[in-house]
Amino acid sequence: MVDSASPPPLTQLITRFSEDKAAAEDWSEAVELLTAAEVFWLSTVRPDGRPHVTPLIAVWHDGGLNFCTGEDERKAKNIAVNGEVVLTTGVNSLHGGCDLVVEGTADRVTDDARLRSLAAAYTQKYGADWTFEVRDGAFVGQGGPALVFRVEPRTAFGFAKGPYGMTRWRFGQE
To answer: How buried is 86 (Cβ within 10 angstroms: 0-12 exposed, 13-18 middle, 19+ buried)?
Structure first.
């Protein structure tokens, strides 16, 4: 888990993709952006190797990004075969802001206490339309049951746009 009790990630400014005035972004600033972001893009891999990308909502909670999906949806089917995913978020402009990329493994969350905590986080962030019950190791809402996945960052990238700079964070590295 990546949180205040975990060692900080190894942080590196990637100079070949950065302007001279750029500095490495602090991970705490990235966490603030991940917490506030409303829309993420999830990239998964189909069983035949073709990519699949879809927008979704997610919450940063206890050191990881958490999202939900119906078990018959393409992303859930892809994760069942290959849990390696990428979540991206940022701003849709060339100048200003910071885009973030989080790489990791999507692990299913089934513990009722953790799911209740995540359900509360969804409602707090996105409002009453995103209220879930917890039942049988899943969220249950208006659209039926939804599997919940957690992605703890293994590697993350920040792309600042003013000055332009690329930061890489590596987690669990010695």
So the answer is: buried
Return the closest-CA partner of residue 132 out of 144, 123, 141.
141
Helix and strand element counts for the chain (H, E): 3, 12
Instruction: Determine phi and psi for 41, rounding to 5 degrees.
Output: -115, 120
pLDDT digits (tens, 9 = 90+) for 145-157: 999 999 999 999 9
3-state helix, strand and coil shares in percent for the chain, rounded to the nearest 5: 20, 40, 35
Inside any domain, residue 4 = no
Q: In the block, which residue shows the tokens 């035949």?
A: 48
Structural domain for 74, as ranges: 10-109+151-170
pLDDT tens digits along 22-55: 999 999 999 999 999 999 999 999 999 999 999 9
In the chain, how many domains are there?
1
Read off the CATH number of the domain in which 156 is found: 2.30.110.10
pTM here? 0.93
Verify cis geometry, omega within 30 degrees of 0, for the bond prior to 163.
yes
Residue 28 lies in a domain: yes
Any domain includes 34: yes
The answer as to whether 127 is a domain residue is no
pLDDT(105) > 60? yes
Q: Give, for 126, the enclosing helix (H) or strand (E).
A: helix 112-126
